[in-house]
Here is the input.
Amino acid sequence: MVRTERIFKVHSGVRKRHTKLKRRNTPGRPDFVQRLAGGDVIVRRNRAATITESKLKAHLREFEQAYNEGRIEVRTSTGLLVDLKSLKVVEKLQPPPPLAEPPLDSAKNDKPAGEKMPMYREGKAMSEEVAPPPKPTLPGDDEEVALSSGGDPAATRKRARKKKE
Here is the structure.
């Protein structure tokens, strides 16, 4: 029986956002090209290096140090993250289950800038035509005021109301 060795991929973590804090806490600035295992493994950005399990175990301390500094990540050939202490796949985070009844998207929850949304009218199908709500009016808005000198009609109505009082 032939036993095949497991193969791992070593990815560069030099420019990844989630390793930024680790890199910030280490002295110096890591090179873009990482030379590990005595120069046998060269890890570049966007190009994973392939390594066998025996070589990884032989230079485990060096790989752990580079991982703790945020310079590399060791993954399986399928892309799952590997824990360097046990060489097992790290459990993936499961998304939370969907809510039993998701909240409905309603006009009441919307907050447009400066205007209120009309409430939903129950009992009318979407295909039926619904009359729009009446437009709010101010006292004296229904009167037609002739503009003698041109200008703003609202200001003219306001002056006309003041004259009545």
Summary: The beta strands are 7-12, 34-36, 41-43, 49-52, 72-76, 82-83, 88-89. The CA atoms of residues 61 and 84 lie 9 Å apart.
